[in-house]
Amino acid sequence: MRLSRYFLPVLKENPAEAQIVSHRYMLRAGMIKQQAAGIYSWLPLGLKVLRRIEAIVNEEQERAGHIPLLMPTLQPADLWRESGRYDDYGQEMLRIKDRQDREMLYGPTNEEMITDIFRSHVSSYKDLPLTLYHIQWKFRDEMRPRFGVMRGREFLMKDGYNFDVDKAAALHAYNRHMVSYLRTYERMGLTAIPMRAASGPIGGDNTHEFLVLAQTGESEVFYDDRVTSLTLGQREIDYDDRTQVADVCKEFTTLYARTDETHDQAVFDQVPEAHRKVGRGIEVGQIFYFGTKYSDAMGAEVTTAEGTKVPVEMGSHGIGVSRLLGAIIEASHDDKGIIWPEGVTPFPVGIVNLKQGDSAADAACEGLYKALAAKGLEALYDDRDERAGAKFATMDLIGLPWRITVGPRGLANGVVELTSRRTGVSEEMSPESAVDRIAQIYAGV
Ligand code: 5CA
Predict the structure, then answer these.
(1) N or C: which end of the chain has fewer CB within 10 A?
(2) Which residue's alpha carbon is at the smallest distance from atom 6 of ligand 1?
């Protein structure tokens, strides 16, 4: 993408309404625009990151054997009357009437609808296990929408629902989600710690939240700091292997890590003092096992191998897709702007032409741009007629992890400069080497 033709409405001033750094940088970098409290347009740069996050979520869900579908944002109230949640949900639910006076709602979550789909089509244990998920906009009329996309009213969520014949199989689905979530967050450059949580309006007694540590997080967290060094890394996971998956969950949930809702000071006191930490965290996901809460209420039954009919065992599992942009920025920025991890960056690399109009510099930039494209890497080429300082400031603000700087002086010696946004370290090399290096970096992402 050539910056001269892109739509990147960067703000020079700090927007007064933004209280936390991620909100400030998302507005300044021209990623989002507020349309009403907690409701945003996604401008091109923001949309690119949102799509990258969705792609990672999809890949890891499909790797775990979960199947995508798409349910609507609007739902009939009657479904929610069946589960009893139409009245329970309270004012967070946006209720709407259509022209026929039928009661509808903008879905805050989809347990009822997915249970309805299941009961319409599945009746035998032979069709299980089954996990269906979608990535869809939700609406919750939050009392205090704030911090930009972090606590929105309209927000994008991945929500998945497992259907299993018995509790052991449903707990395996729970564990599978935990492991696939760990891998999802790691690919986004995040350390997200599973913490025992409270279930709220979703129900059930087995639930974990995933928290990214950040000063600006809304939850207070208590943890043994050795959890922060656990990583899944590149290990092979066989998602059908119940023991292997359960062992990974055990590894990640044995050390103390809880939110204020479930915190137990007496247990926490047993953590060695040097490792006992209290901090704040951003909740980027939550998984629930709730058994037959919805299937009982809505009559979703399956026939077992023995020929009896039982309500299907279920759980639901959510990732805050749009919230993740805020969480990633909170975890990865400096005073100049965002520092995108390679896994989610809107463009893998930026090209800065120090002297637009200089024929050698222009030709070298064009060459780099095309060579990168040939390797499947879309560069953001700053081809505007601007001062170098302004170009660097824009690149630093929008946070592309790598920058190639091209100027007549370097070109006279056959080199361009490759700079890491994270370390600030620059290296001179031939344009060909810069392309190879970028390709190598992204080959592993
Ligand atoms: N049905 C379950 C699991 S699918 C459910 O709704 N879970 S949830 O309420 O915990 O939401 C899942 C994730 O969505 C949360 O962990 C959080 O990351 C994100 N989320 C929840 N509310 C908001 C909000 N107002 N703004 C942005 N993200 C939100």
Answers:
(1) C
(2) 109
